[in-house]
């Protein structure tokens, strides 16, 4: 007899009855147990206490960034090749090897800056995180829609995010604070150029690209490595919004991207993305005018072509948003054999941060939750901790032995899958910027590569946001945009001047405080 039969649940085609988490049938879900029908209630109301105290704990802390998101399950199918070559030339990662090989995936899309129910029309990078449940364990590719980032050193991340989150006094996001940080961070000029263009508001999650942004390595059977960057290309095409289009949608629907993804999958219109990689030899490439590990730079497509390696289809919605989407946990350290870290110092910083926050946000045993657990065998000597759900062990292993090495039937080390990749280091331990910062050249190229309407939107969005900033910040931004492209700087400067003429306001005088100036809102920024 199983549990269901014991409490009569669903027996003989009968109704599925409500129980408590202890399995007790609930015979009255409408009335508290009280002394007479007017109360008072009593403290031995176990069913009520359980129901209410679970409810009291229904929220976990939301993600400190990327709190607003939507997710879906699907499958990744490998091509077995990279461009025209067998993929095994570059990586031994099993999921890529055979043509047609399928790996289940879960993807979470997100916006970055605001809370869990903020509008999905905001100007903000979009997260694109993919968990591949491979036979060798999980691989997480934690990317964004944009291909570059604001900063190249992980030490600066909390400051970057503080400047974009709401002001700690007013709890309102402020364009002045955002550009205060960006104007003092010249490497962010390129990302600001993308973010304030229509690329800063993708129309929905299905019609946007994804990119790993940071540089990784692929390692082949001989232990030889190359540098790689990952990109997702939507087979639905790419669509971005003007500020006006976004405002129109937001006035009617602030969940439009979640709704679009959910409804497309429900009607069987499964979104697909091709996965492409760019490959570089594994060294510092002195011939380039940028450092290949600098995540504020694009690797030019004409020199480093995008090579297809597989295709992903999202074909199943979550059954429970909280259990699958909210509790999902992705991290840049989650790699499988054949994939490796590069020396990109942002990547190492990220790799610490993800699992650290997840131990706090979800709990010590977050990897035992079904959405995060690998779908291959897991056998560790880790035990206990809050919400330990089961013991990670395989049958036949001596349950008394939770350490290694042992001669008493404990777990053994795995055989190596290929030669180790063993990069060699000989350098001084320093605190220094990289040499080839080249902060403005690619920002100018990106500006010139935009279509006219994209450039017009960029200028208008920048002017509307910068108009609320202190004059010192405005001037610094104009200087940085001018270094990127003279026309770019000139148009922002002119836009600000015309706006000041129309409104009778110049940028706030240097040193102005919030109380003198009133609260300066982000205006059109996320
Ligand atoms: C989420 C840290 C840079 C993409 C997060 C979270 C943290 C974090 C703490 C919340 C994770 C959670 O609660 O599960 C950092 C740090 C960075 C950095 C310290 C730089 C040093 C980046 C970059 C990208 C990125 C460059 C783009 C490639 C994402 C995405 C998520 C995320 C997509 C959401 C994942 C999900 O859907 O659960 N990041 N991040 N982050 N980050 Fe980063």
Automatic annotation (TrEMBL):
EC top class named in words: oxidoreductase
GO biological process: hydrogen peroxide catabolic process; response to hydrogen peroxide
Function, in words: Decomposes hydrogen peroxide into water and oxygen; serves to protect cells from the toxic effects of hydrogen peroxide.
Composition bias, Polar residues: 17-34
Stated name of the protein: Catalase
Organism phylogeny: Bacteria, Pseudomonadati, Bacteroidota, Chitinophagia, Chitinophagales
Domain of life: Bacteria
Sequence segments annotated as region (Disordered): 1-38, 495-526
């Amino acid at each position: 007899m199983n549990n269901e039969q014991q409490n009569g649940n669903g027996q003989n085609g009968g109704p599925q009855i409500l129980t408590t988490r202890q399995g007790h049938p609930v015979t009255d879900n409408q009335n508290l147990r009280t002394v007479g029908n007017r109360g008072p209630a009593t403290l031995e109301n176990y069913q009520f206490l359980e129901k209410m105290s679970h409810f009291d704990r229904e929220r976990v802390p939301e993600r400190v960034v990327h709190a607003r998101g939507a997710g879906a399950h699907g499958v990744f199918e490998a091509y077995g090749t990279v461009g025209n070559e067998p993929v095994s030339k570059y990586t031994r990662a099993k999921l890529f090897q055979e043509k047609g090989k399928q790996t289940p995936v879960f993807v979470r899309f997100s916006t970055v800056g605001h809370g869990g129910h903020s509008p999905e029309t905001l100007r903000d990078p979009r997260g694109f995180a993919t968990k591949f449940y491979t036979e060798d364990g999980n691989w997480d590719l934690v990317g964004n829609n944009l291909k570059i980032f604001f900063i190249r050193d992980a030490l600066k991340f909390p400051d970057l995010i503080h400047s974009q989150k709401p002001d700690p006094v007013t709890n309102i996001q402020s364009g002045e604070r955002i550009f205060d940080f960006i104007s003092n961070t010249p490497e962010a000029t390129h990302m600001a150029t993308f973010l304030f263009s229509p690329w800063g508001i993708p129309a929905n999650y299905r019609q946007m690209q994804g990119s790993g942004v940071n540089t990784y390595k692929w390692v082949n059977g001989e232990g030889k490595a190359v540098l790689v960057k990952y990109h997702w290309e939507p087979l639905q095409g790419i669509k971005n919004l003007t500020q006006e289009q976004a405002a129109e949608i937001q006035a009617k629907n602030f969940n439009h991207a979640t709704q679009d993804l959910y409804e497309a999958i429900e009607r069987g219109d499964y979104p697909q993305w091709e996965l492409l990689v760019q490959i570089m030899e594994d060294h510092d490439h002195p011939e380039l005018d940028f450092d290949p590990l600098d995540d504020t730079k694009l690797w030019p497509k004409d020199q480093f072509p995008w090579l297809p390696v597989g295709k992903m289809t999202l074909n199943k919605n979550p059954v429970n948003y909280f259990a699958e989407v909210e509790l999902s946990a992705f991290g840049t350290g989650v790699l499988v054999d054949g994939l490796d870290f590069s020396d990109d110092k942002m990547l190492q910083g990220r790799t610490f941060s993800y699992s650290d926050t997840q131990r706090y946000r979800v709990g010590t045993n977050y990897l035992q939750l079904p959405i995060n657990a690998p779908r291959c065998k897991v056998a560790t000597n880790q035990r206990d901790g809050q919400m330990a759900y089961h013991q990670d062990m395989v049958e036949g292993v001596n349950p008394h032995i939770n350490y290694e090495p042992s001669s008493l039937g404990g777990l053994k080390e795995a055989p190596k899958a290929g030669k180790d990749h063993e990069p060699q280091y000989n350098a001084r331990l320093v605190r220094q910027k990289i040499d080839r910062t080249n902060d403005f050249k690619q920002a100018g190229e990106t500006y010139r590569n935009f279509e006219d309407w994209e450039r017009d939107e960029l200028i208008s969005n920048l002017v509307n946001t910068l108009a609320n900033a202190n004059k010192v910040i405005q001037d610094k931004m104009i200087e940085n945009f001018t270094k990127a492209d003279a026309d770019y700087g000139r148009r922002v400067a002119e836009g600000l001047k015309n706006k000041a003429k129309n409104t009778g306001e110049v940028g706030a005088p240097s040193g102005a405080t919030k109380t003198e100036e009133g609260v300066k809102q982000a205006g059109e920024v996320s």
